[in-house]
Amino acid sequence: MRVRVAGEERVGQAVDLRSAAVEPGQLSTALADPSAEWIDAPAPTPPHDAVGLLQPGMELDLRTALAAAGRSLGLVAPQAAEITRLDREIASIEPNSPDLRAARHRAAEAGADVAALEEQVARTSGRLAARREADLPTEAVQAKLDDLTRKLTEAETEQIAAQEALEQAEAAAQAARDARARRLSLVDRRENRRREARAWFLDALAEPFERALASLPGDVAPTPPVGFDGPTLTGALAVARIADLSTPVVLVDGPFQTAVEARAALDAPVVLASV
User: Fold this and answer.
1) Cα separations (Å) of 42 from 38, 189, 217, 247, 260?
2) Which contiguous run of DSSP H or E holds residue 240?
3) Considering 24, 35, 214, 238, which has the largest number of Cβ atoms within 10 A of its Cβ?
4) Which stretches within 134-231 are classed as H helix?
């Protein structure tokens, strides 16, 4: 790790920046960002999201953190293959909902056009019949009737096409609803498998977690993770000690006097910081 702050360069696996004006959250983000120009560090491993920034009162989902720690050590939960398969299946489902409003509007408009033209054709046909009965000229009325009849035929064709398009859109909408329901079912199944996997990691890492707690300074009694109710910082420190961490963790107000002591206790690269 190499850190450049206020014109000074710090290098090593144990760096103390408590006297530097660096905000801990900004420091943790920069450590995991390969584009950060003022800091160089290895790429983060999965546990970094959970224990990359260690400070009193921090939020910690111990099950998720231990699962990430286990994966960093190469452990594979029995549910991993099914979770991967479900990930692929969920990603392949992309419901494409059609614009039913537009299809319905087109069908309704086409139906209204046909109804209006049918009325005009009937009215004009009546006028034509009346003129013939009165022995009056019919050429103009006949021409108008022919034009209306042509327009009615075109409108009826459009109505058929609009109705077919609406039926197709409704079928596609139903298929999209079915796909979304299928996707939700798969997501629910995946979440169940993930919970089972986290429970598996919780059991698999129970003893390492107790040993990690026992090695830390303080008066927290070693307990399995399922029964741990101590400070979240203490739990996170135990996870950090178990995990394979390549990117340095940022520790604020921890139980260690020096960065070297923290590095040795956590068996991970450490940066001490202050708020």
Assistant:
1) 14, 35, 28, 5, 19
2) helix 232-242
3) 238
4) 139-204, 206-215
